[in-house]
Amino acid sequence: MSQQYGRVGLLYGGTSSEREVSLMSGQAIHRALLNMGVDVVAIDADDNLLQSLPGHQLDLVFIALHGPGGEDGTLQGALEYLKLPYTGSGVLASALAMDKLRCKQMWQGIGLPTTDFALLEADSDWSAELQRLGGQVMVKPAAEGSSIGMSCAATPEQLQAAWADASQYNTAVIAEPLLPGPEYTVAILDGQVLPSIRIESNAEFYDYQAKYFSDQTQYLCPSELSESREQELQTLCLQAFDSVGCRGWGRVDVMVDHQGQFQLLEVNTVPGMTSHSLVPMAAKAAGLSFDQLVEKILAGAL
């Protein structure tokens, strides 16, 4: 039994719209922790989590909750109050990374490349916003992950419908220009930037189904960028990660615009750890097994 971590609580599942993904991530992490000989208790986080946590007598928490309630700083704040060390980013970084609107505003403010955007509301001028953003846009809830609530729009009517769909998940909805791609993702682990991954999806865009269930989505790792271009991408992603104040581990998503420039999409502070997930894929390319990756993430909490 691995004693250095004490009793570890693995929080997974939860009540967000990403519950299904979190259950898969948690199961994979749980197997790895057992393989390592860690004294782990797997906890499917429900509304009574804060009342039940003290009863488990934990020394450390591994967070495998995706989306609101687990990845947005609220859980991190509660664990700080309980004086329980936990994996991943802290309160502010988690909240900021989850809020795509304010994260993009900050990146614009400090000069990091991210596309223009519109904050959509019920009385938005759909035609004017669509024209300003180039005629084709991606609409997304500002505080969801896993592409939940996202859709494309190319007419004012489609834009209004996309806003109505996205607003079911979050009151803040943003639209961004539809970029041609390709799409890249870069994992960061203890300050080390792992090899980038290029994502090629047959879907209209890299949506929830393509991310977690489709065997048609292709991942190239290494991503076949030139050495200088890979260095440019890795430097940008580390800047983005650090600018939000992230720590431990995470993943930065990027797309290429019509001019061939990298544009930051978002930072994920608790990325997926499923069979289709990207951080384990990047770790493998860097010579780390899944179990070794999990141990590095866990060690970061100490």
Can you walk me through this structure?
This protein has 302 residues and is α+β, with helices and mostly antiparallel strands. The chain has three domains: 2-87, Rossmann fold (3-Layer(aba) Sandwich); 96-113 and 180-300, ATP-grasp fold, B domain (D-amino Acid Aminotransferase, Chain A, domain 1, 2-Layer Sandwich), CATH 3.30.470; 118-177, Dna Ligase, domain 1, CATH 3.30.1490. Helix content is 36%, strand content 23%. The chain contains eleven helices and 13 strands. Strands 8, 9, 10, 11, 12 and 13 form a six-stranded antiparallel sheet that branches. Helix 1 (19-35) packs across helix 11 (290-300). The chain is globular and about 60 Å long. It starts with a strand and ends with a helix. Mean pLDDT is 92; it is low at 210-214. It holds the Pfam family Dala_Dala_lig_N. It is an enzyme of class 6 (ligase). GO terms for molecular function: ATP binding; D-alanine-D-alanine ligase activity; metal ion binding. Keywords: ATP-binding, Cell shape, Cell wall biogenesis/degradation, Cytoplasm, Ligase, Magnesium, Manganese, Metal-binding, Nucleotide-binding, Peptidoglycan synthesis.
